[in-house]
Design goal:
This is Ig-like domain-containing protein. Pfam families: I-set, Ig_3. Keywords: Signal. GO terms for molecular function: axon guidance receptor activity. The chain is mainly beta. The chain is built from 2 helices and 28 strands. A hairpin with a 6-residue loop joins strand 9 and strand 10. Bound molecules: 2-acetamido-2-deoxy-beta-D-glucopyranose (NAG) (3 copies). The site of one 2-acetamido-2-deoxy-beta-D-glucopyranose (NAG) has 5 residues, from loops.
Length: about 325
């Protein structure tokens, strides 16, 4: 026995008995292969706490105990470790994630086979969100990747919430290996508030909520109608357009800005309705032009109506 615990026991035994014990052990225990009496166990260590492996050896003569981590020998002078009790105790102070792995002790006294025992160091740590997702503005049909980088041991499972609902993955929506949420072919209904959730056996962590805003390029829904009017008639041409942000509408006459016309504009939900009132004295092309500015740049769409004029014949 090499542990100090056993030495303490001996202190209380009369000197004579010690002699006797030593004598007995010399006769009965001489020269045998080492035996590991306390095998290594899996050690669950909290980050920044100390981890200790015990490898208690029964050996006569005293065994030489060596340690390995992931099959690499640990040197006695390696300041990362503290080795005590003639090598029967390995202390890893202030455990880091890089310390996890398999640890083995080997006892060798030159007689028979060396004895070996292995155990694992497992870090335990509540999940933490290391990198939060951020607000994004995306164009319809584009793709979104919201990051969510977490820490924790065991490695946390990542899920995502939209509002309060758990997101179900499908052919369009996936959760990538590192926890990021990927949405293909963004739709209008993907707009909303998202959070990632990291969970392991020690706890749960939520990311900050972030917003996905979905933008849509300007689109004309109602095109102005072609008309044939009598000269000098005031016509009303209607055009409506939608998009996110809501587009602005301008009117052109033969490709130029119009003078002497009035425009009536109303917003109905996300649709802007524009009515041009113009007095027609000659045939012309009237163009409704809708423009919006979104994350993908500016977008302009046009629709043109031809207004033809019929000459009024005065009746005699
Ligand atoms: C960890 O080990 C170091 C070095 O032996 C010691 O100073 C420290 O008090 C220990 N910390 C804890 C939390 O046991
Ligand atoms: C994200 O958007 C929300 C509202 O849409 C806002 O309250 C929040 O401050 C934004 N966060 C950042 C980091 O810009
Ligand atoms: C815009 O035009 C479309 C197509 O004509 C029509 O269905 C819709 O009701 C219009 N919207 C508004 C707000 O006028």
């Amino acid at each position: 026995m090499q542990l100090s615990l056993n030495m303490k026991l001996l202190e209380n035994i009369p000197v004579l008995q010690i002699f006797l014990l030593l004598h007995l052990s010399l006769i009965s225990g001489v020269q045998r292969a080492p035996k590991i009496t306390t095998l290594l166990e899996t050690v669950d260590a909290l980050l920044d706490h100390n981890a200790t492996f015990i490898c208690e050896v029964d050996s006569h003569p005293l065994a030489d105990i060596t340690w390995m981590r992931n099959n690499y020998p640990i040197r006695h002078y390696d300041s990362r470790y503290i080795i005590r009790e003639n090598g029967q105790m390995l202390i890893i102070p202030n455990v880091k994630d890089t310390d996890s792995g398999e640890y083995c002790c080997t006892a060798n006294n030159g007689i028979g086979e060396p004895a070996k025992s292995c155990g694992a160091l497992q870090l335990k740590m509540k999940p933490q969100i290391k990198r939060h997702p951020t607000n994004v503005t995306l164009l319809l049909e584009s793709k979104a990747v919201l990051p969510c980088v977490s820490l924790g041991y065991p490695k946390p499972e990542i899920s995502w919430l939209k509002g309060d609902e758990l997101i179900k993955v499908d052919s369009r929506i996936s959760i990538l290996e590192f926890g990021a949420l990927k949405i293909h072919n963004i739709r209008k209904e993907d707009a909303g508030q998202y959070r990632c959730v990291a969970r392991n056996s020690f706890g749960i962590a939520y990311s900050k909520p972030v917003t996905i805003e979905v933008q849509a390029p300007a689109k004309i829904l109602k095109v102005p109608k072609e008309r044939k009017v009598q000269i000098g008639t005031e016509v009303a041409l209607e055009c409506n357009a939608t998009g996110n942000p809501v587009p602005s509408i301008t009117w052109l006459e033969n490709g130029n800005t119009i003078t002497g016309a009035s425009v009536e504009e109303t917003l109905v939900g996300e649709v802007i309705v524009s009515i041009l009132h113009v007095v027609v004295n000659k045939p012309a092309l009237y163009t409704c032009q809708a423009t919006n500015q979104h994350s993908g740049g500016a977008n302009t769409v046009k629709a043109t109506a031809k207004i033809t004029v019929s000459v009024r014949f005065f009746e005699a």
